[in-house]
Specification:
Layout lengths: L12 H7 L4 H5 L6 H6 L12 E6 L18 H4 L4 E3 L6 E3 L3 H4 L6 E7 L5 H10 L16 H8 L10 E3 L44 H30 L4 H17 L1 H6 L7 H7 L3 H14 L4 E5 L23 H25 L6 E6 L3 E2 L16 E2 L3 E7 L6 E3 L1 E2 L6 E3 L2 E2 L1 H11 L6 E3 L5 E3 L12
Parallel strand pairs: 1-6, 1-7, 4-11, 4-14, 5-6
Antiparallel strand pairs: 2-3, 4-10, 7-10, 8-9, 12-13, 15-16
Helix pairs in contact: 11-12, 12-13
């Protein structure tokens, strides 16, 4: 096993004061991933793939497999829902009728229908799905074990000097770097803390920035940095009085490199959506998802290795009161909600897939769409209006994948006739993580050490999905 820098647990006062430094997240969102510390950990060796990236579109709240990629038209009415499957350009693969554009390119994507895990709560399910470990708390705001993107940022940290490795629109409820430390949280241009609170009705948080695109967010961060400059200098003088070992001099150099990352032309160019032709903007659509996925493509082209975003969507009042995918009867009319969401999805996602293939990025960039779990096959009517809804269901879910050098044009696994549980190729959700880590070249048996000093492998179990390789 190759050498791995460990987390020794709680810091003493001297180490705490030494870490300090420039924080991208603090500049832009009030959260404090320490970029200087991230840059300092270059001694961690890695055999990771230098050419692989992931774009994760996370349907926070839990998308229904029965309304997207695993329809059951022969099931009883109380299970099958209102939508019919349509054929695709790959014989035998059918998807929801609300996705006609995707249906024309099934040779460029694959669907896994047989994943499951054991957590039915939103943040508990998110932590379980994205870290591979079931959290102790029922609904932790922060992950108890590092999420996928944070592990990637840790493993690949020495590869890029002038652009963030891990970028997100905002923090996931149940996501985070856990004991890896805030250095491995994503760079979030316009993060909103409410996204990690369990609230399900906040406005979508755009990856591209609230105004003027991501470039404006970067400029706002620099302006904030200037305002903080005198305070930082005062604090630096205080720290130097406490540290005479020379480590502060090294930290100063790392701070300079952190500033270089924020101010680099490469970062500015990556976030600048105005560089794209209008016809490209039109293909993706003038929507939150369209702009965010276009920016995600620009980011991975520029060297960002993991881009994740919540797929939050503002529904009409007739469709529901929530902005995530938590389609209980008390939140939404499930079928009206999907009639509003999926046409937008069916513009933005096909545009991204087309771009990945047209630009020769399909071997190096993997697009993933999923959420923390699926929805109950049995339709519920708890709301006083008796509108239809579906509840949490971690026993079965569908995962949509495109590109990444994986085998496309197939469906892996199957659920029973009512979509209740897998009956073919039953797999724990860790198998998806293992597949992604394999493509990154990350050894999942490598050990981290949690805050108690206990050794924890990146994944304790889960094998890559052989059909995709």
């Amino acid at each position: 096993m190759q050498h791995q820098r460990i987390c020794p647990g709680p810091l003493d006062r001297r180490s705490f004061l030494t870490i300090g430094g420039l924080s991208l997240g603090a500049l832009t969102s009030g959260i404090s991933p320490n970029l200087s510390q991230l840059l300092a950990n270059e001694e961690v060796s890695s055999t990771a793939n230098k050419d692989f990236s992931v774009i994760l579109l996370w349907a926070n709240g839990g998308p229904s497999h029965l309304e997207t990629f695993d329809l059951k038209p022969e099931a009883p009415a109380e299970y099958r829902g209102e939508f019919n499957p349509i054929p695709t350009n790959v014989p035998g693969i059918e998807i929801c009728e609300l996705l006609p554009n995707l249906a024309k390119m099934a040779d460029k994507f694959s669907i896994v229908r047989s994943l499951h895990h054991n957590r039915n709560e939103h943040s508990g399910g998110t932590c379980r799905f994205l870290s591979g470990y079931s959290p102790i708390a029922a609904n932790p705001s922060d992950a108890e074990c590092p999420e996928l993107g944070s592990v990637v940022a840790n493993q690949l940290e020495s590869q890029q000097k002038d652009i963030p490795l891990f970028v997100a629109n905002t923090k996931f409820y149940g996501g985070g770097p856990a004991y890896l430390g805030a250095a491995y949280a994503p760079f979030m241009p316009t993060a909103n803390p409410i996204t990690s609170s369990g609230d399900n009705s906040y406005d979508p948080v755009p990856l591209f920035g609230a105004k003027g695109g991501g470039l404006q967010a970067q400029q706002d961060a620099l302006a904030e940095l200037k305002k903080r400059d005198s305070l930082l200098k005062t604090f630096d003088n205080f720290r130097r009085e406490l540290d005479r070992t020379g480590s502060m001099k090294s930290l100063d150099k790392l701070n300079e490199r952190a500033m270089a990352m924020l101010t680099s032309p490469r970062t500015a160019d990556a976030f600048n959506l105005s560089k794209e032709r209008q016809e490209v903007h039109d293909r993706y659509g003038a929507t939150n998802w369209g702009k965010s996925l276009l920016l995600a493509r620009r980011l991975v082209e520029s060297g960002v290795r993991f881009v994740q975003m919540q797929a939050t969507f503002r529904l009409s009042k007739e469709a529901g009161r929530t902005s995530n995918w938590d389609d209980h009867s008390v939140n939404t009319h499930t079928f009206k909600a999907y009639r509003e969401r999926m046409p937008v999805f069916d513009v933005a996602v096909p545009a991204l897939i087309e771009d990945l293939y047209a630009r020769g990025m399909d071997k190096k960039v993997l697009f993933v769409f999923c959420g923390e779990f699926g929805r109950t096959p049995l339709i519920r009517h708890q709301d006083k209006s008796k509108r239809p809804g579906r509840d949490h269901w971690s026993k079965a879910m569908s995962i949509f994948l495109a590109g990444g050098g994986l085998k496309m044009g197939q469906v892996v696994g199957a659920t029973n006739p009512r979509g209740e549980h897998p009956i073919e190729r039953t797999m724990d959700s860790n198998c998806l993580l293992a597949t992604i880590y394999r493509q990154f070249g990350i050894n999942t048996k490598q050990l981290y050490y949690d805050n108690s000093g206990r050794p924890v492998p990146i994944l304790a179990d889960g094998e890559p999905i052989a059909e995709l390789l």
